[in-house]
Amino acid sequence: MPEARHAIEAAQEPAEGDTGADGAAALREELAALDEDGRTGRLLALVRGHVAAVLHYPAPEAVDPGRPFKELGFDSIAAVELRNRLRAATGLSLPTTVVFDYPTPEALAGCLLAQLAPEESATAHPGLGHLDALEAALAGMAAEDPRRTGLVKRLQGLLWKYTATDDEEGEPADEQDLAAATADEVFALIDRELGT
After folding, report:
1. d(CA 85, CA 45)
2. For site-directed labelling of 192, which of 48, 100, 117, 143 has its Cα 20 to 30 A away?
3. Which of 52, 53, 75 is nearest to 62 (CA)?
4. Is 151 exposed, middle or buried (0-12, 13-18, 19+ CB in 10 A)?
5. Which residues does 123 contact at the CB level (< 8 Å), separation at least 6?
């Protein structure tokens, strides 16, 4: 199929203007020097540029930032090609469904901004960076990978542990009446208590 051959060739070639890890690092430095509006505009220009390249539009300006990718002419092969280009340009681990999860260039640029932008506040906890890395690692694992399942269970246990609060009488939340707990909460409690 010509479309499949085109997608494979595009995935194997570096994206236009991409210099690999150096390009992703340069992009991060550039974003760090911009204000919020500047970062948003830069990432929207990046997305529009790659969309125009994938769809063979004459220029990035021909890509309407608010128009859904499906209406722009995207199919699953084009979506994978765009994901590959953005992954190479940003250094982010993006899922193959990113174009469907964020269905317009504006929404996709917002997704990239949330992952790439430096922390706005110096008081932000450094653990947030570790969470970003963890999210990227999970996105890169297959759903049936047992390591992914174990990691998700561990995260659920941590979430349960650190969101539990004491009730008015000082009884820990995980010891309260289980009749009020959801099934997921009960399983998380069992996993945490039994260490499975």
Report:
1. 14
2. 143
3. 52
4. middle
5. none
Angle, vertex CA 11, rays to CA 135 and CA 28, nearest 5: 45
Q: Which of 135, 87, 82 is nearest to 104 (CA)?
A: 82
Element (H, E) at 41: helix 36-55
Taking the chain, what is the end-to-end CA distance rounded to the nearest angstrom? Answer: 47
Higher pLDDT, 192 or 41: 41
Using one digit for the tens of pLDDT, what is the confidence trace for 43-88?
999 999 999 999 999 999 999 999 999 999 899 899 999 999 999 9
pLDDT, tens digit (0-9, with 9 covering 90-100), for 141-192: 788 888 888 888 888 888 888 876 544 444 444 455 566 677 777 777 777 7
- Tell me if the pTM is above 0.85: no
Q: Within 13 A of 173's CA, how many CA atoms are on the CB side? A: 12
- Residue ranges per domain, the chain? 2-116, 141-194
